[in-house]
Amino acid sequence: MQFSYLAIFILLLILLFAFILLAPFHLSLDIGKTGPLVEGSIKLAWLGRTLMKAEISPQSAGDLLASIWKEKAREEKEEKEQEGREAKLEERSEIDNSADSEENGLVRPPSIQSLIDVAPALAKILLDLLKSILFKTVSCRLCFGLGDPAQTAIISGYLWSLASAFGLFPGKIFIDPWFEGERLEGELAAEMEARLLWAVFAVIQALRVREIRQLLREMLGRA
Amino acid sequence: MENITDMRVMVGKEIKAGDRTIWPVMRISILNTCEDRILAIQITPLAMLIIEPAGQYAVSFAGEPMTIEAILELAAPLRDVLEKTRGAAKIIKVE
Q1: Which partner for A142 in A14, A70, A186, B74 could form a disulfide, CB atoms 3.0-4.6 Å apart?
Q2: In this structure, how many other beta carbons lie within 10 angstroms of the beta carbon of residue A13?
Q3: Contact at 8 Å (CB) between B8 and B28?
Q4: Are B14 and B21 spatial neighbours (Cβ–Cβ below 8 Å)?
Q5: Helix axes A196-208, A112-131, angle to 10 degrees
Q6: What number is the ipTM of this complex?
Q7: Under an 8 Å CB criterion, which residues of A touch B?
Q8: Helix, strand or coil for residue A142?
Q9: Which residues of chain B make contact with A159, given a CB cutoff of 8 A?
C-alpha cells in the first residue's frame, strides 16, 4: 500500500515537472520612440499570470540615458564598496587563496583558445535555443537619418538585406530612410512564446559536449 | 503609376581634405510600391562644389564644365554654404 502511494507521488511529481516544462512563457514587448520621447512596456507571463511587468513612461531619450547612467554609477559605487569590504575581510583571514577561490565559487575568465574551441558548439546550442522561441507577432517600424543621404541609403540597404536574410516577417518590417537630416524614430512590438523544455534540453545537450564541459571546468578553476 | 518614383537632388555631408572642402551633390531616386513602401533607392552623384582658400569651383560628374551658378541652381542649399565661406574669408582678410 505504501509502495503504491509512493509510486503515485512520484508520478504526480513527474507530471508536475512535465507541466512546468511544457507550459509556455509569453513575452510581450512594445517599445517606441517618437521625437525625443521613448515609451514602452515589457511583460512576462506564464499560465495567464504576470510574472514581470515593466513600463517605460514617456520620457526623453536624454532623460532615459541619464537615469540609466545614474543607476549604473550607483551600482558601480556599491560594487566598489562591497569589494573594499571583501578585501578587508580577505586581509584578515589567513585561509589559502586557491582553496578560498574554489569555495567562494569565484569564476575565472576562460582562455581565448577554449573560447575558440567552444564557439561552434555554442553557436549550435544558441541556434537551438532561438528555434525554441516562437514569434507570434512581430512588427517593426524604423525611420532613421544619419545626416548624409548617401550614408543613410547605404545603411538602409544593409538593414533591408538583414531583414530579408532573416526573412521571418517580410511584411511587418518597415525601414524608412530619412534623407533630410538626422533622425531616429521607430516602434517595435513583439509577442513571443518559449517553453522551458527546450531550454533544459539545450542545457543538457551543452553539457554533453566535451569542449563546453572543459570550458566550464576551466571557469570554475577545476581544469 | 503616379508618385511611384520620387526624385530629389540633395547635398551630401562635406568631405574635408586638408584646406579643401568638398560638397557632393547627388540625385536620390526612390522607387515606391503601390502601398507607398520603398522598393529601391538609387543614388547618382551629379556634381561637387570644391571650396579652397584660393577660391571655389564646381565639377560635374557628367564631364561637362560647370559654373558656380549652375551648381547653385542644381542644389540651392549650397548657397548658404558659399555665403558662410565668403563671410569667413572676408573676416580673415580684415584681420
Answers
A1: A186
A2: 10
A3: yes
A4: yes
A5: 150
A6: 0.78
A7: 147-151, 153, 156-157, 174-177, 179
A8: strand
A9: none
Task: Judge whether B44 and B29 are in contact, CB under 8 Å.
Answer: yes
Is B41 close to A156, i.e. CB distance below 8 A? yes
Neighbour count for residue A118 (Cβ, 10 Å)? 22
B48 interface with A at CB cutoff 8 Å: no
Chain A partners within 8 Å of B10 (Cβ): 149, 179
Instruction: Specify the residue for cell string 548658404.
Output: B80
- Using a CB-CB distance cutoff of 8 angstroms, which residues of chain B are in contact with residue A149? 10, 12, 26, 28, 43
Q: What is the pLDDT of residues A39-78, one digit of tens each?
A: 899 999 988 888 889 888 776 666 666 767 777 777 787 8
* CB-defined contacts A:B, below 8 A: 28
Q: Is B15 on the interface with A (CB under 8 A)?
A: no
Q: Where are the domains of chain A?
A: 24-74+135-194, 107-132+196-223
Residue A62 in grid coordinates: 536624454
Residue A204 to residue A201: CA distance in whole angstroms: 5
Rg (chain A; Cα; Å)? 24
Find the CB nearest B28 among A147, A151, A179.
Answer: A179
DSSP B36: S
Query: Which one, of B86, B77, B91, lies nearest residue B14 by Cα?
Result: B77
Report, as ranges of residue numbers, the positions in chain A whose pLDDT lies below 70: 1, 59-65, 67, 90-107, 167-171, 222-223
Question: What pTM was computed for the model?
Answer: 0.61
